[in-house]
Amino acid sequence: MSFDRFTEIQIGSDFHQAKKVEERIVRSATKCGYNEDTIFALRLSVEEALSNAIRHGNLYDIHKKVEIRYSIRPERIDIYVTDEGRGFDPGGVPDPTAPENLENPSGRGIMLMQAYMSQVEFNESGNQIHLVKLNQAC
Amino acid sequence: MSNLAISTTEQENTTIFLLTGSADLIETGQLDRHLQEAYVQGKYKLVLDLSELEFTSSLGLGSLIRAHTRCREHGGQLTLVNPQPRVLRIFKTTRLTELFQIYPSVEKAVAGMQKEKDEG
Fold it and tell me: Is B88 touching A (CB cutoff 8 A)?
């Protein structure tokens, strides 16, 4: 499998910059012919990943960067988001759908990415997420 | 990509916000500001019409949850109206359909909230 078509972008810990990246990825996926449901899932997951990197990874530190590396091909999309934080244990995140957690205003990002992407993986330290979306139409 | 427009109307002591566009990581702040303006005016009976909302993420959900809690703490209520299918799926996936009352129309939401108030 060739991964020579990765685009790499680096942004600061800034939501406006994150939104521009999100829009760029969505435009590329739309041009590649992904359907609207997939585009919605992609937009949601990229937003969650970037939001988590800025808020939880880099703690809003404007001096810390977020690296985005992505490949959009007709059969699949791969996105890597890496922050400069200490990382975390994805397994330690409480279940946001548990009754006692429903009124927590945060903690749903990972769960949403797992629900909407074909595959979600973290690196060992937890400061990089890999999102995969397979094109169901292929 | 669309931004977020919020229009406000009043009906039977209930404030109705119509959200149009996307409540994403940039626009959620605008939603929070509108909610804050309602609180400052002592308005805690809120209906959020989501029929024109095309997108939200967990940040938007967080705003709604905080508002729901705040309204309840002040003896009021926050209900939602007619989310679009893709947005509704987010609520179902996160089981927030168990937290929020979701009505098919603003009229039914206002009537429902009035009925609950009358029943004490």
Answer: no
Residues of B in contact with A106 (CB under 8 A): 58, 62
CATH 3.30.750.24 fits B4-118, yes or no: yes
Condensed to tens digits (0 to 9), the pLDDT of residues B41-64 reads 999 999 999 999 999 999 999 999
Helices B58-73/B28-40 angle, 10° precision? 10
For residue B30, give both structure tokens.
């605008």
Minimal Cα–Cα distance from A100 to chain B, Å? 11
* B108's tokens: 């039914």
pLDDT (tens digit, 9 = 90+) per residue, A33-58?
Answer: 999 999 999 999 999 999 999 999 99
- The answer as to whether A129 is a domain residue is yes
- Interface size A-B, in CB pairs within 8 Å, comes to 62
Q: How many domains is chain A built from?
A: 1
Structural domain range at position A84: 7-134
* Pair B113, B14: CB distance under 8 Å: yes
CATH code of residue A117: 3.30.565.10
Residues in A closer than 8 angstroms to B70, CB to CB, are: none
Q: From the candidates A13, A25, A103, A114, which should be mutated to test the interface with B, based on the most B CB atoms within 10 A?
A: A103
Q: Which of B68, B69, B94 sits opposite A96 (nearest CB)?
A: B94
- Does residue A80 contact residue A69 with C-beta atoms inside 8 Å? yes
Asked whether residue A1 is assigned to any structural domain, the reply reads no
Residue A92 belongs to some domain of the structure: yes
Q: What is the ipTM of this complex?
A: 0.93
